[in-house]
């Protein structure tokens, strides 16, 4: 059985991609979620029969690849639609929002909402983490996935839809 190390917490597009990859390849496996892909690659090193699943827009994925050339190699790439990406909040009224959260990759989606031009923004390790922090009251609104917004009982204020996205599989060198 294969172990797929990828970005968590539960509800990330990487988790969805891991399920997709297992199904596409008719494999059984464990999906192990990490706070960052940098953490995931370190844990993958210690884990038998493991791969790293990354998203091609993950900030500094290139550092992970080039810092670990003696340990991992790129073995597969695929495109899959993400969960619907959306703007969600604890509030129903956009005027109550004073602080926003997002993963660095989709943060430019805030630019589609003019009311947020001058509002404070905080970056988190994943879209799911942004939703969790919103539910805890650390930010008032976030860019996240539909799955994470539902999990944390957030109000959907704008749905950007799914995004065709690339994902990569990195295997250990023999």
Structure write-up:
The chain has 174 residues and is an alpha/beta fold. It is built from five helices and ten strands; from the N terminus they run E-H-E-H-E-H-E-E-E-E-H-E-H-E-E. The strands form two sheets. Strands 2-1-3-10-4 form a five-stranded mixed sheet, with helices on both faces. It has a five-stranded mixed sheet with strand order 7-6-8-5-9. The longest helix is centred in the first third of the chain and has 12 residues, at 13-24. The radius of gyration is 17 Å and the shape is elongated.
Write the layout of secondary structure elements.
Layout: E1 2-7, H1 13-24, E2 29-34, H2 37-46, E3 50-55, H3 61-67, E4 72-81, E5 85-89, E6 99-102, E7 120-123, H4 127-135, E8 141-145, H5 146-151, E9 155-161, E10 164-172
């Amino acid at each position: 059985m294969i172990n797929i190390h990828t970005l968590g917490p539960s509800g990330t597009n990487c988790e969805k991609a891991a399920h997709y990859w297992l199904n596409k390849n008719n494999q059984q496996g464990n999906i192990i979620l990490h706070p960052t892909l940098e953490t995931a690659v370190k844990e993958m090193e210690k884990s038998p029969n493991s791969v790293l699943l990354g998203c091609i827009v993950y900030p500094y994925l290139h550092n992970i690849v080039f810092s670990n050339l003696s340990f991992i190699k790129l073995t597969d790439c695929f495109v899959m639609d993400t969960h619907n990406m959306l703007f969600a909040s604890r509030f129903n009224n956009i005027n109550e929002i004073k602080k926003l959260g997002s993963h660095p990759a989709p943060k430019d989606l805030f630019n589609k909402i003019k009311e947020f031009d001058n509002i404070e923004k905080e970056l988190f390790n994943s879209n799911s983490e942004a939703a969790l922090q919103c539910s805890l009251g650390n930010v008032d609104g976030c860019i996240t996935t539909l799955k994470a917004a539902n999990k944390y009982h957030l109000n959907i204020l704008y749905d950007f839809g799914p995004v065709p996205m690339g994902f990569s599989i990195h295997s250990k060198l023999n």
